[in-house]
Amino acid sequence: MAIRVLLVDDQPLLRTGFRMILEAEQDLAVVGEAGDGLQALDQVRALQPDVVLMDIRMPRMDGVEATRQITGPERDGPAKVLVLTTFDLDEYVVEALKAGASGFLLKDAPAGELVQAIRVVANGEAMLAPSITRRLLDKYATHLPSGEEPVPDTLHTLTEREVEVLKLVARGLSNAEIAADLFVSETTVKTHVGHVLTKLGLRDRVQAAVYAYESGLVRPGAQ
């Protein structure tokens, strides 16, 4: 069955462009559009999309609050949220990820990258773009702890290797890159990542990256 996609953006021209790109793919189906967060909530309830392509800055209700309601405990369906941000990186993206978004994508990303991101998110994975994840978190370091705060008790449940993996995830490395860095197999990395998510009660790699920064395990600007 085709992946059902809801387009949420306050610019009709952008929605039209996204629709043209996605409807050219046999496994993707655009089931609706919304111009703000409130409309998005109504459409999610009515259309039950698999993936919501979510803009951040919109009238009436922004993408952060809409994401929080779509992915929160009172959610009406299985929809995943993929956040769209501008080239200079929207200051609300970190909040959207914390609210439950499964990843983020630049609005000027190539069509193939957009399509692949939707497929990845629909499959239950996180779209954590290595090329911009670190830049995003470093840019908004002022919103994150200084690293002087007490380390959360949950962090102590991780093994030394799992901590290493979490640090690399926070830097935006893929499983293959982590495997190469630690001289282990990708399967081993996937196992470690799974253990990290389970022990810390996190949903995906995106939340793991945010957790690593918020806990002070990884500090903005550090190598």
Automatic annotation (TrEMBL):
UniProt keyword annotations, A-Z: DNA-binding, Phosphoprotein, Transcription, Transcription regulation
Top-level taxon of the source organism: Bacteria
Pfam family, one: Response_reg
CDD domains from the UniProt entry: LuxR_C_like, REC_NarL-like
Domain HTH luxR-type: 151-216
Matches recorded under InterPro entries: CheY-like_superfamily, NreC/VraR/RcsB-like_REC, Sig_transdc_resp-reg_C-effctor, Sig_transdc_resp-reg_receiver, Tscrpt_reg_LuxR_C, WalR-like
Keyword Transferase carried by entry: no
PROSITE patterns attached to this UniProt entry: HTH_LUXR_1 (PS00622), HTH_LUXR_2 (PS50043), RESPONSE_REGULATORY (PS50110)
Claim: Lipid biosynthesis is one of the keywords in the record: no
Residue(s) carrying 4-aspartylphosphate: D55
Gene3D superfamilies in the cross-refs: 3.40.50.2300
GO biological process terms held by the UniProt record: phosphorelay signal transduction system; regulation of DNA-templated transcription
GO molecular function, one term: DNA binding
Ranges of residues in domain Response regulatory: 4-122
PANTHER family xref list: TRANSCRIPTIONAL REGULATORY PROTEIN NARL-RELATED, TWO-COMPONENT RESPONSE REGULATOR
This protein's name: Response regulator
